[in-house]
Amino acid sequence: MKAIAGHRERKKQRTREQIVESAFALFRERGFQATTVADIAAAADIAPRTFFAYFPSKEAVVFYDFDGLFGSLKETVESRPDGETAIDALRRWLELSMPAHHDESPDEQLRRRMCLDEPQLAAHQQHLIAGLEEILRVGIARDLGQPPDALQPRLVAAAAVAAFKAIEHDGAGDKTKSMALFDETLVFLRGGVAALQARA
Length: 200
What we know:
- Residues 36-55 bind DNA.
- Residues 13-73 form the HTH tetR-type domain.
- It comes from Solirubrobacter ginsenosidimutans.
- There is one protein chain.
- The chain is an all-alpha fold and 200 residues long.
- It has helices at 2-30, 37-43, 48-54, 58-62, 66-78, 86-97, 106-117, 119-144, 151-170, 175-199.
- The protein is built from ten helices and no strands.
- Helix 5 runs parallel beside helix 8 (119-144), helix 6 packs antiparallel against helix 10 and helix 8 (119-144) packs across helix 9 (151-170).
- The protein starts with a helix and ends with a helix.
């Protein structure tokens, strides 16, 4: 039974990868707007309904890796040891999850360009980043001993996400530079959290 389940999971993973590869090839050739879900399904040799078993929308394919990344961040923040803040957990997650390469992959470059050119993709990206902010807000609230919807956790989480976005832009593709930039922001973020804890 385990062998059958393992084979099934590998097949699902291959299908998902084929959908992503087909989608990005079409986006590169035709552009995002001119590519339909039916086009992607045909290129991946699957039925359109099979596409929706893997992705809820065409936009979701563009950000195919975000669910896994944010899921690992959520686990890192929630399972952090005593004495480690949510901000420090974010840094540890970045260190572990960020590739060491210095050049973005062609798909990452294409995604960046499409987000600049397509308002609906930019909006979808902002929606996903809001999920990142929520993960941090809950963790920071725990650090401060406050409810997640309190003003102070929201402010610190928003500052952390703003730093994350700036680093993604300024240090894109360069892990060493990105981590150095984030370490600079940590001074500010840790100071803010410490000041808020002192007032509590």
